[in-house]
Amino acid sequence: MDPKQSARHERLDELQRDPYPLYARARQTAGLTFVPELDAWLVARDADVREVLLRPDDFSSAQALRPDVVPTAAVLGVLARGFGKRPTVVSTDGAAHRRHRAPINGGLSAGPVAALAPYAAEVATGLVDGFAADGHTELMSCYARRLPGAVIGRLIGFAPKDVPVAVHGGHRAEQLLFRPLPEEEQLAAAEDVVALQHLLDRYARARRAEPRDDLCSAMVAALAPDTGLGPGTRELTTDQRGELVSSLQNLLIAGHLTTTALIGTALLHLLRHRDQWELLCARPEFIPGAVEEAARYDTAVQGFRRTTTRPVILAGTELPAGATVFVSYGSANRDEARHEDADVFDITRPPAPTRHVSFGHGAHGCPGSQLARTQLRVTLELFTRRLPGLRLAESHEVVMRPTLIHRSPEELHLAW
Hints:
By secondary structure, the protein is of the alpha+beta class. Helix content is 53%, strand content 8%. The chain has 16 helices and ten strands. It has helices at residues 3-17, 20-28, 46-53, 73-79, 94-107, 110-131, 139-144, 146-156, 163-178, 183-209, 215-223, 238-272, 274-282, 287-297, 329-332, 369-386; strands at residues 33-35, 40-43, 59-60, 136-138, 303-308, 312-314, 317-319, 324-328, 391-392, 413-415. It has a five-stranded mixed beta sheet with strand order 1-2-8-5-3. A hairpin with a 2-residue loop joins β6 and β7 (317-319). α8 runs antiparallel to α12 (238-272), α10 (183-209) packs across α11 and α11 packs across α12. 44% of the residues are buried.
Protein backbone atom coordinates (compact mmCIF):
# COMPACT_ATOMS: atom_id res chain seq x y z
CA MET A 1 0.00 0.00 0.00
CA ASP A 2 1.40 3.39 -0.96
CA PRO A 3 2.05 5.97 1.81
CA LYS A 4 -0.88 8.21 0.78
CA GLN A 5 -3.30 5.29 0.86
CA SER A 6 -1.91 4.13 4.20
CA ALA A 7 -2.33 7.61 5.68
CA ARG A 8 -5.92 7.76 4.41
CA HIS A 9 -6.74 4.43 6.06
CA GLU A 10 -5.23 5.64 9.34
CA ARG A 11 -7.41 8.75 9.25
CA LEU A 12 -10.44 6.64 8.32
CA ASP A 13 -9.77 4.27 11.23
CA GLU A 14 -9.56 7.17 13.67
CA LEU A 15 -12.78 8.68 12.35
CA GLN A 16 -14.70 5.41 12.41
CA ARG A 17 -13.64 4.39 15.91
CA ASP A 18 -15.29 7.58 17.21
CA PRO A 19 -17.28 9.52 14.60
CA TYR A 20 -19.42 11.46 17.10
CA PRO A 21 -17.21 14.59 17.42
CA LEU A 22 -17.29 14.96 13.63
CA TYR A 23 -21.07 14.53 13.64
CA ALA A 24 -21.50 17.21 16.28
CA ARG A 25 -19.42 19.72 14.31
CA ALA A 26 -21.27 18.90 11.10
CA ARG A 27 -24.68 19.45 12.70
CA GLN A 28 -23.57 22.91 13.81
CA THR A 29 -22.12 23.83 10.41
CA ALA A 30 -24.32 25.44 7.78
CA GLY A 31 -24.99 23.20 4.81
CA LEU A 32 -23.33 19.82 4.32
CA THR A 33 -19.77 18.94 5.32
CA PHE A 34 -17.50 17.19 2.84
CA VAL A 35 -15.46 14.43 4.53
CA PRO A 36 -12.38 13.39 2.49
CA GLU A 37 -11.94 10.13 4.44
CA LEU A 38 -15.42 9.06 3.34
CA ASP A 39 -15.12 10.73 -0.08
CA ALA A 40 -18.67 11.91 0.54
CA TRP A 41 -20.80 14.78 1.78
CA LEU A 42 -21.92 14.06 5.34
CA VAL A 43 -25.67 14.34 5.95
CA ALA A 44 -25.66 14.85 9.71
CA ARG A 45 -28.92 16.49 10.83
CA ASP A 46 -32.01 14.38 11.55
CA ALA A 47 -34.30 16.39 9.26
CA ASP A 48 -31.83 16.17 6.36
CA VAL A 49 -31.30 12.43 6.87
CA ARG A 50 -35.04 11.82 6.74
CA GLU A 51 -35.38 14.01 3.65
CA VAL A 52 -32.76 12.01 1.74
CA LEU A 53 -34.29 8.69 2.77
CA LEU A 54 -37.72 9.83 1.54
CA ARG A 55 -36.36 10.92 -1.86
CA PRO A 56 -35.04 7.69 -3.41
CA ASP A 57 -35.63 9.04 -6.94
CA ASP A 58 -33.10 11.82 -6.25
CA PHE A 59 -30.74 9.88 -3.97
CA SER A 60 -30.07 6.41 -5.37
CA SER A 61 -28.98 3.40 -3.31
CA ALA A 62 -26.99 1.85 -6.16
CA GLN A 63 -23.66 2.57 -4.41
CA ALA A 64 -24.92 2.14 -0.84
CA LEU A 65 -22.19 -0.36 0.00
CA ARG A 66 -19.28 1.04 -1.98
CA PRO A 67 -16.17 -0.57 -0.46
CA ASP A 68 -13.58 1.41 1.48
CA VAL A 69 -10.85 -0.91 0.17
CA VAL A 70 -10.19 -1.78 -3.49
CA PRO A 71 -9.21 -5.46 -3.82
CA THR A 72 -5.90 -6.27 -5.50
CA ALA A 73 -5.78 -8.14 -8.81
CA ALA A 74 -4.82 -11.33 -6.98
CA VAL A 75 -7.81 -11.01 -4.65
CA LEU A 76 -10.11 -10.38 -7.62
CA GLY A 77 -8.71 -13.56 -9.14
CA VAL A 78 -9.80 -15.56 -6.10
CA LEU A 79 -13.23 -13.90 -6.02
CA ALA A 80 -13.71 -14.80 -9.69
CA ARG A 81 -14.07 -18.42 -8.55
CA GLY A 82 -17.25 -17.42 -6.72
CA PHE A 83 -20.23 -15.43 -7.91
CA GLY A 84 -19.97 -11.85 -9.11
CA LYS A 85 -21.59 -9.05 -7.16
CA ARG A 86 -25.23 -8.45 -8.15
CA PRO A 87 -27.76 -5.81 -7.02
CA THR A 88 -29.57 -6.66 -3.78
CA VAL A 89 -32.28 -5.13 -1.62
CA VAL A 90 -29.71 -2.67 -0.20
CA SER A 91 -28.42 -1.46 -3.57
CA THR A 92 -31.57 -1.16 -5.69
CA ASP A 93 -34.31 1.43 -6.09
CA GLY A 94 -37.93 1.48 -7.24
CA ALA A 95 -39.42 -1.68 -8.72
CA ALA A 96 -36.17 -3.64 -8.43
CA HIS A 97 -35.99 -2.82 -4.73
CA ARG A 98 -39.59 -3.87 -4.17
CA ARG A 99 -38.93 -7.16 -5.97
CA HIS A 100 -35.95 -7.96 -3.74
CA ARG A 101 -37.68 -6.80 -0.59
CA ALA A 102 -40.99 -8.65 -0.95
CA PRO A 103 -39.85 -12.14 0.21
CA ILE A 104 -37.73 -10.63 2.98
CA ASN A 105 -40.69 -8.62 4.28
CA GLY A 106 -42.72 -11.81 4.45
CA GLY A 107 -40.01 -13.81 6.17
CA LEU A 108 -39.36 -11.08 8.75
CA SER A 109 -42.97 -10.10 9.45
CA ALA A 110 -44.46 -10.22 12.94
CA GLY A 111 -45.57 -13.87 12.77
CA PRO A 112 -42.22 -15.47 11.82
CA VAL A 113 -40.30 -13.21 14.24
CA ALA A 114 -42.62 -14.16 17.12
CA ALA A 115 -42.20 -17.83 16.21
CA LEU A 116 -38.40 -17.44 16.37
CA ALA A 117 -38.38 -15.82 19.83
CA PRO A 118 -38.49 -19.13 21.81
CA TYR A 119 -35.63 -20.49 19.70
CA ALA A 120 -33.60 -17.32 20.31
CA ALA A 121 -34.22 -17.66 24.05
CA GLU A 122 -33.18 -21.33 23.95
CA VAL A 123 -29.92 -20.58 22.10
CA ALA A 124 -29.16 -17.60 24.36
CA THR A 125 -29.69 -19.70 27.49
CA GLY A 126 -27.41 -22.44 26.17
CA LEU A 127 -24.66 -19.92 25.41
CA VAL A 128 -24.86 -18.38 28.89
CA ASP A 129 -24.88 -21.84 30.45
CA GLY A 130 -21.56 -22.40 28.72
CA PHE A 131 -19.74 -19.61 30.59
CA ALA A 132 -21.89 -18.65 33.60
CA ALA A 133 -19.78 -20.67 36.05
CA ASP A 134 -16.49 -19.16 34.79
CA GLY A 135 -16.94 -15.70 36.31
CA HIS A 136 -15.77 -14.05 33.10
CA THR A 137 -16.23 -14.11 29.33
CA GLU A 138 -15.42 -12.27 26.13
CA LEU A 139 -18.93 -11.39 25.05
CA MET A 140 -18.42 -10.80 21.33
CA SER A 141 -16.93 -14.22 20.51
CA CYS A 142 -18.79 -16.29 23.12
CA TYR A 143 -22.25 -14.80 22.72
CA ALA A 144 -22.86 -11.71 20.55
CA ARG A 145 -21.59 -13.31 17.31
CA ARG A 146 -23.18 -16.67 18.00
CA LEU A 147 -26.79 -15.91 18.91
CA PRO A 148 -27.62 -13.82 15.80
CA GLY A 149 -25.87 -16.33 13.55
CA ALA A 150 -27.95 -19.20 14.92
CA VAL A 151 -31.18 -17.20 14.61
CA ILE A 152 -30.65 -15.97 11.04
CA GLY A 153 -29.43 -19.45 10.11
CA ARG A 154 -32.68 -20.96 11.39
CA LEU A 155 -34.70 -18.33 9.50
CA ILE A 156 -32.89 -18.86 6.19
CA GLY A 157 -32.97 -22.63 6.61
CA PHE A 158 -29.35 -23.62 7.22
CA ALA A 159 -28.46 -26.97 8.73
CA PRO A 160 -26.85 -26.30 12.16
CA LYS A 161 -23.48 -27.61 10.94
CA ASP A 162 -23.38 -24.92 8.23
CA VAL A 163 -24.11 -21.94 10.48
CA PRO A 164 -20.51 -21.40 11.72
CA VAL A 165 -19.18 -21.50 8.14
CA ALA A 166 -21.86 -19.05 6.99
CA VAL A 167 -21.27 -16.64 9.89
CA HIS A 168 -17.50 -16.75 9.42
CA GLY A 169 -17.89 -16.08 5.70
CA GLY A 170 -20.12 -13.11 6.45
CA HIS A 171 -17.52 -11.58 8.75
CA ARG A 172 -14.82 -12.12 6.14
CA ALA A 173 -16.91 -10.46 3.44
CA GLU A 174 -17.23 -7.36 5.61
CA GLN A 175 -13.48 -7.35 6.32
CA LEU A 176 -12.67 -7.62 2.64
CA LEU A 177 -14.86 -4.63 1.79
CA PHE A 178 -14.07 -2.33 4.68
CA ARG A 179 -10.72 -3.26 6.26
CA PRO A 180 -7.22 -2.51 4.87
CA LEU A 181 -5.74 -6.01 5.31
CA PRO A 182 -2.30 -7.24 4.21
CA GLU A 183 -2.61 -8.96 0.84
CA GLU A 184 -2.04 -12.42 2.31
CA GLU A 185 -4.95 -11.86 4.69
CA GLN A 186 -7.07 -10.42 1.88
CA LEU A 187 -6.48 -13.60 -0.12
CA ALA A 188 -7.49 -15.76 2.84
CA ALA A 189 -10.64 -13.67 3.35
CA ALA A 190 -11.49 -13.98 -0.34
CA GLU A 191 -11.21 -17.77 -0.11
CA ASP A 192 -13.66 -17.72 2.81
CA VAL A 193 -16.08 -15.52 0.88
CA VAL A 194 -15.96 -17.86 -2.11
CA ALA A 195 -16.62 -20.83 0.18
CA LEU A 196 -19.65 -19.00 1.60
CA GLN A 197 -20.97 -18.22 -1.86
CA HIS A 198 -20.75 -21.83 -2.97
CA LEU A 199 -22.53 -22.88 0.23
CA LEU A 200 -25.34 -20.42 -0.52
CA ASP A 201 -25.52 -21.63 -4.10
CA ARG A 202 -25.97 -25.22 -2.91
CA TYR A 203 -28.84 -24.13 -0.69
CA ALA A 204 -30.52 -22.15 -3.47
CA ARG A 205 -30.33 -25.08 -5.89
CA ALA A 206 -31.53 -27.53 -3.22
CA ARG A 207 -34.55 -25.33 -2.41
CA ARG A 208 -35.46 -25.05 -6.08
CA ALA A 209 -35.49 -28.86 -6.23
CA GLU A 210 -37.27 -29.33 -2.89
CA PRO A 211 -38.81 -26.17 -1.39
CA ARG A 212 -39.18 -25.96 2.39
CA ASP A 213 -40.85 -23.62 4.85
CA ASP A 214 -37.88 -21.28 5.16
CA LEU A 215 -36.74 -17.91 3.84
CA CYS A 216 -34.28 -19.42 1.38
CA SER A 217 -37.15 -21.19 -0.36
CA ALA A 218 -39.23 -18.00 -0.37
CA MET A 219 -36.38 -16.04 -1.94
CA VAL A 220 -35.82 -18.68 -4.60
CA ALA A 221 -39.55 -18.67 -5.45
CA ALA A 222 -39.69 -14.87 -5.62
CA LEU A 223 -36.43 -14.08 -7.42
CA ALA A 224 -36.27 -17.14 -9.69
CA PRO A 225 -39.86 -18.33 -10.18
CA ASP A 226 -40.36 -21.75 -11.72
CA THR A 227 -42.01 -21.14 -15.10
CA GLY A 228 -43.11 -24.75 -15.44
CA LEU A 229 -42.55 -24.55 -19.21
CA GLY A 230 -41.09 -27.98 -19.63
CA PRO A 231 -38.23 -30.37 -18.81
CA GLY A 232 -35.16 -28.71 -17.36
CA THR A 233 -36.86 -25.44 -16.47
CA ARG A 234 -36.61 -26.23 -12.78
CA GLU A 235 -32.83 -25.79 -12.98
CA LEU A 236 -31.65 -22.35 -11.93
CA THR A 237 -29.86 -20.39 -14.63
CA THR A 238 -26.38 -18.99 -14.06
CA ASP A 239 -27.83 -15.48 -13.71
CA GLN A 240 -30.46 -16.66 -11.23
CA ARG A 241 -27.83 -18.44 -9.17
CA GLY A 242 -25.66 -15.33 -9.07
CA GLU A 243 -28.55 -13.10 -8.02
CA LEU A 244 -29.69 -15.52 -5.32
CA VAL A 245 -26.18 -15.91 -3.91
CA SER A 246 -25.77 -12.11 -3.67
CA SER A 247 -29.19 -11.70 -2.08
CA LEU A 248 -28.69 -14.51 0.42
CA GLN A 249 -25.22 -13.24 1.30
CA ASN A 250 -26.60 -9.75 1.90
CA LEU A 251 -29.44 -11.11 4.06
CA LEU A 252 -27.05 -13.26 6.06
CA ILE A 253 -24.61 -10.43 6.75
CA ALA A 254 -27.35 -7.91 7.57
CA GLY A 255 -29.13 -10.50 9.70
CA HIS A 256 -26.27 -11.31 12.03
CA LEU A 257 -23.59 -8.58 11.95
CA THR A 258 -26.01 -5.76 12.78
CA THR A 259 -27.53 -7.63 15.72
CA THR A 260 -24.09 -8.69 16.93
CA ALA A 261 -23.09 -5.03 17.00
CA LEU A 262 -26.31 -3.99 18.75
CA ILE A 263 -25.83 -6.56 21.51
CA GLY A 264 -22.21 -5.53 22.03
CA THR A 265 -22.83 -1.78 22.23
CA ALA A 266 -25.94 -2.22 24.39
CA LEU A 267 -24.06 -4.18 27.07
CA LEU A 268 -21.08 -1.81 26.82
CA HIS A 269 -23.12 1.32 27.53
CA LEU A 270 -25.34 -0.27 30.17
CA LEU A 271 -22.27 -1.39 32.11
CA ARG A 272 -20.53 1.95 31.64
CA HIS A 273 -23.63 3.53 33.20
CA ARG A 274 -23.75 1.31 36.26
CA ASP A 275 -26.82 2.95 37.77
CA GLN A 276 -28.83 2.11 34.66
CA TRP A 277 -27.67 -1.51 34.62
CA GLU A 278 -28.73 -1.86 38.26
CA LEU A 279 -32.06 -0.18 37.49
CA LEU A 280 -32.63 -2.63 34.66
CA CYS A 281 -31.88 -5.59 36.95
CA ALA A 282 -34.31 -4.30 39.55
CA ARG A 283 -37.01 -3.20 37.12
CA PRO A 284 -37.13 -5.34 33.97
CA GLU A 285 -40.09 -3.34 32.69
CA PHE A 286 -37.45 -0.87 31.46
CA ILE A 287 -35.99 -3.45 29.05
CA PRO A 288 -38.02 -2.29 26.01
CA GLY A 289 -36.83 1.27 26.64
CA ALA A 290 -33.25 0.03 27.05
CA VAL A 291 -33.47 -1.70 23.67
CA GLU A 292 -34.54 1.53 21.95
CA GLU A 293 -32.02 3.68 23.78
CA ALA A 294 -29.14 1.32 22.97
CA ALA A 295 -30.15 1.37 19.30
CA ARG A 296 -30.39 5.19 19.29
CA TYR A 297 -27.36 6.12 21.37
CA ASP A 298 -24.67 4.17 19.50
CA THR A 299 -26.19 3.05 16.24
CA ALA A 300 -25.01 -0.30 14.87
CA VAL A 301 -25.31 0.76 11.23
CA GLN A 302 -23.99 4.30 11.30
CA GLY A 303 -25.25 5.07 7.81
CA PHE A 304 -25.24 4.30 4.10
CA ARG A 305 -24.08 6.10 1.00
CA ARG A 306 -26.50 7.56 -1.53
CA THR A 307 -25.74 8.98 -5.00
CA THR A 308 -27.55 11.94 -6.50
CA THR A 309 -29.36 11.14 -9.76
CA ARG A 310 -29.66 14.80 -10.79
CA PRO A 311 -28.51 18.20 -9.51
CA VAL A 312 -30.15 18.83 -6.11
CA ILE A 313 -29.96 21.27 -3.23
CA LEU A 314 -29.81 19.73 0.24
CA ALA A 315 -29.47 21.80 3.43
CA GLY A 316 -28.51 24.74 1.24
CA THR A 317 -25.65 22.85 -0.44
CA GLU A 318 -25.76 22.46 -4.23
CA LEU A 319 -24.88 18.93 -5.33
CA PRO A 320 -24.33 17.87 -8.94
CA ALA A 321 -25.63 14.61 -10.40
CA GLY A 322 -23.40 11.74 -9.34
CA ALA A 323 -22.40 13.26 -5.98
CA THR A 324 -21.97 10.88 -3.05
CA VAL A 325 -23.55 11.60 0.33
CA PHE A 326 -23.11 9.59 3.51
CA VAL A 327 -26.49 9.52 5.26
CA SER A 328 -25.58 9.26 8.93
CA TYR A 329 -28.17 7.54 11.09
CA GLY A 330 -25.71 7.74 13.99
CA SER A 331 -25.53 11.52 13.76
CA ALA A 332 -29.29 11.97 13.31
CA ASN A 333 -29.82 9.97 16.50
CA ARG A 334 -27.66 12.46 18.43
CA ASP A 335 -29.40 15.52 16.99
CA GLU A 336 -30.65 17.77 19.82
CA ALA A 337 -33.30 19.13 17.48
CA ARG A 338 -34.97 15.70 17.57
CA HIS A 339 -33.85 14.14 20.88
CA GLU A 340 -33.56 16.10 24.12
CA ASP A 341 -30.19 15.58 25.86
CA ALA A 342 -29.23 13.53 22.82
CA ASP A 343 -25.68 12.78 24.05
CA VAL A 344 -27.02 11.28 27.30
CA PHE A 345 -27.60 7.52 27.56
CA ASP A 346 -30.92 7.16 29.39
CA ILE A 347 -33.00 3.98 29.35
CA THR A 348 -35.87 5.83 31.07
CA ARG A 349 -36.16 8.25 28.14
CA PRO A 350 -39.89 8.72 27.31
CA PRO A 351 -40.90 7.28 23.94
CA ALA A 352 -40.47 9.94 21.28
CA PRO A 353 -43.37 10.87 18.98
CA THR A 354 -40.99 10.09 16.10
CA ARG A 355 -38.61 7.19 16.59
CA HIS A 356 -34.88 7.23 15.98
CA VAL A 357 -33.57 6.24 12.55
CA SER A 358 -31.31 3.40 13.72
CA PHE A 359 -33.10 1.00 11.40
CA GLY A 360 -33.45 3.45 8.54
CA HIS A 361 -36.51 5.31 7.34
CA GLY A 362 -38.73 5.20 4.27
CA ALA A 363 -38.50 2.60 1.52
CA HIS A 364 -35.19 1.21 2.78
CA GLY A 365 -36.21 0.88 6.43
CA CYS A 366 -34.69 -2.32 7.84
CA PRO A 367 -37.17 -5.23 7.51
CA GLY A 368 -35.28 -7.12 10.22
CA SER A 369 -35.59 -4.44 12.91
CA GLN A 370 -38.05 -6.43 15.03
CA LEU A 371 -35.87 -9.54 14.87
CA ALA A 372 -32.88 -7.51 16.08
CA ARG A 373 -34.95 -5.95 18.86
CA THR A 374 -36.23 -9.39 19.89
CA GLN A 375 -32.72 -10.79 20.25
CA LEU A 376 -31.52 -7.82 22.32
CA ARG A 377 -34.63 -8.05 24.51
CA VAL A 378 -34.01 -11.78 25.07
CA THR A 379 -30.37 -11.00 25.89
CA LEU A 380 -31.19 -8.30 28.45
CA GLU A 381 -33.88 -10.43 30.10
CA LEU A 382 -31.46 -13.31 30.44
CA PHE A 383 -28.38 -11.38 31.55
CA THR A 384 -30.16 -9.22 34.13
CA ARG A 385 -31.72 -12.34 35.62
CA ARG A 386 -28.72 -14.66 35.51
CA LEU A 387 -25.77 -12.25 35.83
CA PRO A 388 -26.87 -9.14 37.77
CA GLY A 389 -23.30 -8.63 39.01
CA LEU A 390 -22.02 -8.24 35.45
CA ARG A 391 -19.31 -5.62 34.99
CA LEU A 392 -16.66 -4.56 32.49
CA ALA A 393 -13.37 -6.35 33.14
CA GLU A 394 -10.94 -3.67 34.36
CA SER A 395 -7.90 -5.33 32.78
CA HIS A 396 -9.16 -4.91 29.21
CA GLU A 397 -9.57 -1.62 27.35
CA VAL A 398 -12.62 -1.45 25.11
CA VAL A 399 -11.68 -0.61 21.51
CA MET A 400 -14.37 0.00 18.89
CA ARG A 401 -14.13 -1.64 15.49
CA PRO A 402 -13.11 0.85 12.79
CA THR A 403 -16.21 0.62 10.62
CA LEU A 404 -19.37 2.62 10.08
CA ILE A 405 -21.30 -0.39 8.83
CA HIS A 406 -21.47 -2.55 11.97
CA ARG A 407 -20.20 -0.45 14.88
CA SER A 408 -19.33 -2.56 17.92
CA PRO A 409 -16.52 -3.35 20.35
CA GLU A 410 -13.66 -5.38 18.89
CA GLU A 411 -13.84 -7.41 22.12
CA LEU A 412 -15.90 -6.97 25.27
CA HIS A 413 -14.43 -8.67 28.31
CA LEU A 414 -16.91 -9.04 31.17
CA ALA A 415 -16.70 -10.37 34.71
CA TRP A 416 -19.14 -11.12 37.54
